[in-house]
């Protein structure tokens, strides 16, 4: 354990510090990232007395180096000698918490929060809390911003006098002159409220919350919405109406769309926090307004919450609220002018069927699903298709299949390959819900057509899709419907299609089992070893390597080995390589 | 923002084309939110010029009130008649305040500012294009421009009217007014920002009491832009105003102004969209240095600290700014900063991106810079020599090689002896560097071994460290080329 005491002869601190001072930023960065190694070499004593002062005094550096330093110091407790000495880390972190660059500052605050837990209550009051105070009174906005993140970690563990001071400092920062600081304070308001005693939440937090929620800058107001969730959760039901709701109502009708967007975005959380009564009286109309907002951003955020909102409505009159208040808005959104709104809705609308039950779904929702399935925007259609399972459970997919098929076919032939890719991914799901008959009749041709798509990613996905279908419908189905078609492609004039045969075999052999693989697939693969295109030949070698383990020992030795040996003497380098690899890997002696 | 672009999810590759398609469909944006209930019919009032002078003031007020009516311009077919009446009235008002004397009586001020505030102060609509790239995309134009333009015009004429009295107006054109005006600089519509620029400049000129406040708020906008949102459309316009404000600063500069330079203007260089406002920014910086040359060293150090690491386009801009600074630098200041600065220039000269290398080499075409280099050749040459010598043999671009030869020739003529010394010691220097690198590797290897043997002492960090080391190795390799 030479290192623990520091070995001067080997690692004089001067050398290490030279490294930290190197002219080259990259080398400095590397050294900082290995700061723990340096500290270990120096031992705890010298780390405390030499390294940390050096870091505190002389680091004026590029932000990237500072970021690394801020992160390192958060894990340094053991390297300075444990919790007893952890306060030695405060000076460098304090100066890092005042730098301009946000990422550095945030990291310093994160590290400070981390090591605050390692302080004893006494150290917290003697060392940590004064630091928080200094930061919160700093000249430049950066230190005050950082202070906002530190109040909540020390508050629970200090004496009541110090607590009062902390509350005072937080209050001051909430009305800071600089909007950056007010934003920081507003974003920590909820967190701070959670560690406060309930009386102080009522007396202090509410007034701060109200003030921030009517700040002149919308960027501050919107952060108050976030805090609203925490505050409403903390307060007893009877306080909410007077203390929280006026502000929340105002936020939902704010003149800035950013604030309304935030309300829409946090709607489910708000709904849970204020409880069923207020939801019924206040949030339902507010939600209706958000769904009808003049800005598409707000409508989309609200549309996203439709299902969750409905789900969390009080059960006794949920259906009535949805049918009379929410559904009319949803109907309008289906034909919204903005495609983001429509696709946000399409993502959740199917979820309503489980809440409304079979009859309502058929009567009211089905027309909406069908309309969205015919939407001009592929994203909307995809979102509907991706959530088919929700409807399937309630009314069965048959109700939709009439419209579903044209929608699927159209997506399957979309000009954008990523749209085609997306629909392929839903095929196994669709197949499972539509059943084998429907599939064979309507979708099988599509799945086969993808195998000869001109985009490789689609062919690849199609191959994988076949594998999943076989897993679902079984080997016998595979043998009758897809294996012949796949093998037929081995004679295609296009070598890319011939290769697709091989890729399919790779994917299907395991699901199909030994019998089909040996009797039907293997002969085709072996025959293809004479293909004139080298790419096909080396893929034969790869395929043999892949399906080899499924075959029995004698087939392997008698049929596969000679072919691989022949390929291993091929004129093409790659063919040789893959053949040799297959030979070396396959289990010849099983 | 909210709705992650659908097209992006579906097909990342065709984003551009989808955006283009969106653009064709989109309607220009407007952003009044539930401002008023069903619009009332506007009645055509008699012309101001036809009214007897005793009634003019009353009519003027009526017309101002009439213009507080807002219309929905997203719907281009409704209210055509009313829109036309308002347009004509606004035109008349503009004409009225710009050609007549004695119309700005005290009672008109609140009516005027109410009309202006009602029309122009609004929350800007979300951008149609969530990843609007000001360098490439067409801006969304303000839909209600036919009216708003006239209101801006009116405001400007109001401020410029010879009868205009700031002492009365300051009751209405106050901090809140200015704050809302500043927020509008985020408008995507360049026509609007242009008006705002002139208007804010006038306000800054006429309202002494608002000056500090305006500067502070611009400060806040920039800081938010740099450290929080990276998005604000009006940075160039605000900088343009600041350029002339800085020009008027009294000497010696106040601490507040220096702080603005170091803590706001210099960090502004880190912005992603620097290209959009670099000219204005560099102008401001140079203005500062012309006022107070002692700021040169901290400014250049600041630029060096934020020197772009991966964006060659920005590097070229930085080099341009350095040259602008060198154009006005005092020889004493040059001496203070030459070492770190030429270390950077030497890296730029060796940059594999030929535009960066070329821009740096162009410094040697500048007579004043050449004279400064010559004066300090014993310091500059040793820093530059290694890069130039290496590049003269290695750079892929023949133009750069040719330029480097010229520069080497110029430098050699400045101090032939030193040049020969450096040439002869080039090889041994490289070897010494290599040896040093070897020693460093050894040191770290030993430290790592030590750490391994101590791994019990330090259970929690070891995993992280290993991965960090791997990363370091990679980044080391990547970097070697450019050093």
TrEMBL record, chain A:
Q: Which residues form the Phosphatase PP2A regulatory subunit A/Splicing factor 3B subunit 1-like HEAT repeat domain?
A: 276-357
Where is the secretion signal located? none
Domain spans labelled Phosphatase 2A Regulatory Subunit A helical = 89-270
What are the GO MF terms of this UniProt record? protein phosphatase regulator activity
Name the record gives this protein: Protein phosphatase 2, regulatory subunit A, beta b
Residues crossing the lipid bilayer are none
Task: List the SUPFAM superfamilies hit by this protein, alphabetically.
Answer: ARM repeat
PANTHER family documented for this protein: PROTEIN PHOSPHATASE 2 (FORMERLY 2A), REGULATORY SUBUNIT A, BETA ISOFORM-RELATED, SERINE/THREONINE-PROTEIN PHOSPHATASE PP2A 65 KDA REGULATORY SUBUNIT
Q: Which organism is it from?
A: Hippocampus comes
List the taxonomic lineage: Eukaryota, Metazoa, Chordata, Craniata, Vertebrata
Automatic annotation (TrEMBL), chain B:
Checking InterPro entries in the record gives: ARM-like, ARM-type_fold, PP2A_B56
Spell out the Pfam families in the cross-references.
B56
Q: Where is this region: Disordered?
A: 1-38, 455-483
Q: Where is the composition biased (Low complexity)?
A: 470-483
One GO cellular component term noted in the UniProt record for this chain: cytosol
Species the sequence originates in: Hippocampus comes (Tiger tail seahorse)
| Protein's recorded name | Serine/threonine protein phosphatase 2A regulatory subunit
The biased composition feature labelled Polar residues covers 455-469
Gene3D superfamilies noted in UniProt: Leucine-rich Repeat Variant
Residue ranges annotated as compositionally biased, kind Basic residues, are 16-26
Q: Which family does it belong to?
A: Belongs to the phosphatase 2A regulatory subunit B56 family.
What are the GO BP annotations of this UniProt entry? Answer: signal transduction
Q: Which GO terms describe its molecular function?
A: protein phosphatase activator activity
